[in-house]
Amino acid sequence: MSLLINAFQVSKALGYKHLFSNLSFGVSKNSVIGMIGPNGAGKSTLLKILAGEITADSGEVVKQKNLNISYLPQLPTFDEEATIMSATLEKSHDPYDWEEMHRAEVLIDQFQLLSNERTYETKVSSLSGGWKKRLAIIRELQTKPDLFLLDEPTNHLDLEGILFLENYL
Predict the structure, then answer these.
(1) pLDDT band at residue 45, thresholds of 50, 70 and 90?
(2) Which of 18, 50, 67 delimits the end of a domain?
(3) Which end of the chain is more exposed for a tag (fewer CB within 10 A), N or C?
């Protein structure tokens, strides 16, 4: 199997608290991996290191050339004045490209984001936490990631949303 990312002896501390030391692992293509641990154990920190948002104190993270990583944080942020469609296209290379727009429409439809009350032009600020979480997942999937890192993806999702996400992934 092809390795997408390889971590070798990665360590990270926050102040005097050592989150993890000399952590080594690889993530292969088509892998589905979950991390379980108590709050404060460093799960989110490790995901941010893998996504390239922060650096490790020591060790090395080697990524496959041209690897497209999407990272979904626990609490995604949006421009509250954005619409469902503009938020979906926010990370697109060309938000006016027909294929990008079509892909956005398909994802929005698959995640059942639209209803009698919600249209493509609905403001993000009017969405509940669960609908914002679905929109955040859609926004990241729009980028066609090779590696999708999800930090507590089921937070704010109802059972239907959780089951759909499991099946989709």
Answers:
(1) very high
(2) 67
(3) N
Asked if 52 contacts 5 with a C-beta cutoff of 8 angstroms, the reply is: no
Q: State the distance between the two ends of the chain, measured CA to CA, in whole angstroms.
A: 19
Single out the residue of 42, 44, 140, 159 nearest to residue 92, CA to CA. Answer: 140
**Residue 63 and residue 20 share a domain:** yes
The β-bridge relationship of strands 3-14 and 17-28 is: antiparallel
Determine the structural domain holding residue 155 and report its residue range: 72-168
pLDDT at 155: 86
- Tokens read off for 137: 């997942």
Same domain assignment for residues 52 and 100: no
Q: What would the mean pLDDT of 82-102 be, rounded to a whole number?
A: 91
User: Pick the residue with more confidence: 80 or 49?
Assistant: 49
